[in-house]
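Example record used in the benchmark description.
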Amino acid sequence: MNRRQVSSHHRPEKTASLLPSALNRKWIFGLLLVLATMIAYQQTWHIGYIWDDNFHITGNPTLRDLHGLWRIWSEVAATPQYYPLVHTSFWLEYHLWGLNPVGYHLVNVFLHTLAAVLLWRVLVRLQIPGAWLASAIFAVHPVEVESVAWITERKNVLSAAFYFAAALAYLRFAAMRDAENPSRQRWYLYIASLALFVFALLSKTVACSLPAALLLVGWWKTGRLRWKDVLLLLPFFAVGLGLGLGTVWIEQHQVGAQGAAWSFTFTQRFLIAGRALWFYASKLFWPAKLTFIYPRWDISVSSGWQWLFPLAAVAVIATLWWARTRIGRGPLVAVLFFAGTLFPALGFVNIFPFRYSFVADHFQYLAGVGLIVLAAAGLTRLPRFIPAALLALLAVLTWRQVGIYRDLETLWRDTLEKNPISWMAQDNFAAVLMQKGRLDEAIAHLQKALEIDPDDVETQNALGYALLQMGRAEESFAHFQRALEIEPNRVAAVHYNLGHALLQRGRVDEAVSHLQRALEIDPSYVPAYSDLGYALLQKGRVEESFAHLQRALEIDPDYIAAHFNLANTLLQMGRVDEAISHLQKVLTTDPNDPEAQKNMAWVLATWPEARIRDGAKAVELAERANQLTESRDPITGATLAAAYAETGRFPDAIRTAEVALQLATDSGNVALTELIRAQIELYRSGHPFRDIR
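Model output (structure tokens):
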């Protein structure tokens, strides 16, 4: 056997032995990438819901049924932002595991991991040095935590997964076309890429940078732009531009990114953009003091040092262009991708978060890939232990950063430690304290917020609400009225809260006016429908009350206050069985609601229809309501007395009614006082009380 024969005999065997090795290597690196991400984000198992998660998940009525799913796609205003694939994913999860936050967090981590793996395969196809390292840095970099640990930012991780999948499909299509492959099957890759791109846009329109990025890659590879590449990407540009402009319109007209807080000249926007670029780059290379809300810069065109940021950014791009023949086109492409993908968040278009900060970590979730890839390519020139140590350090920082998203109190405490001059953080931390009943602390933080920005409508409104909760209704009026002086026709919540406060003070006509105005501003404001239904019932307009309460429950079938108020309206209409079903809904949701317990006990004890009366159950509910109100509410006391009388316990009924009579007299409620006196006379004669409507 000659050498030629030996050589030809063994070549296939050598090739076959290499294939499993390469495949195994790919699987090992892929699993390492997944494992590193899972470890870095391990704490997501233990964190809950935070800011805005109520609008997207816990309080989102579109997640409840098929009609809600239809609204997600067909109504732009049905969700906080029109990203239907994001809310469809939430819809599916809601029907799988309800409101358990663990499932939503794990899906976010999975999507982030998937995005990292897809990015790795894109970089491998582009033959970029350090492809795996770049993907691993992206996976465990702490600046990405905000997008992964915050359920609301599902839009980032979902969009990125589709973005990289679309890029991978297009690059495969382009490689086959460049090879002049005669197979027509290559076009399925083009169609798949375009479809995945649309999915990315329907998750978050920052993905509109993809066609420009693909052109940049083509120029990096060949040194020129070909018309056939431009023509192939025209559908991508058209769809991206259309949906991107739609997002701009929604951000301004639906989310509310317009007004004095967004009124900047082009020169000011230029200064914001330049400073933002350097801010984001600095956080990538030195991720220290990452926080949920960064200080909002004071922008001044007369400040010379502020001009250094945009001028330096332009100088960097110009230098990289000039040096492209010496150092290659890669650095310029990386920087252009970074700046171009960030463009929607640089200040040239209005977005709502600019009201309290010009920068946020989640804005550079996708854009940061450009500089990460550039840095990873450079790190491959260093000894291997340096990149390995860097990855370990980043993973530890990410693990720690995830911890600040554990709950709202932890998040806002951390934010205030790093940014104490944020009125937004002061305001939202106060809201957390109010939910925990710590009203004095909440008011202190709201007052601090007003010192920072006395013209903030939300803070004035929140302080008024906190004072109202403390029973200081008269003091609350001044803050609600000040909020309306600042923004008379935009914030429905202010009109609602003022209407609610007026109802508490018995000023029903004024309350009705403000509640109606709240609904003119926001026709989907469920609490306003509920309170307006209650107010109209006080005025004897029963049919109108019924219509408004029905509308409230059409929008949100789980809104408990509307069930409670509708039960009272139905009682006035003589529809007792329906009223009881609504009260049962309240008690099922909150068995310790004293108002619902009292009302149900009253119906069961005093309604003239014997078939629905249940004295024993009425006593049980009324005793519990009386205990919860610490025996200080005369109406609850009168209800308990009626329940005792219904079961024949007249001595208990008389004794309880006399205590209620004293409370009613002390409160100055003449009508209630007379009613309880009449009840006592009935009990002394051995007769239960009957509520004749």
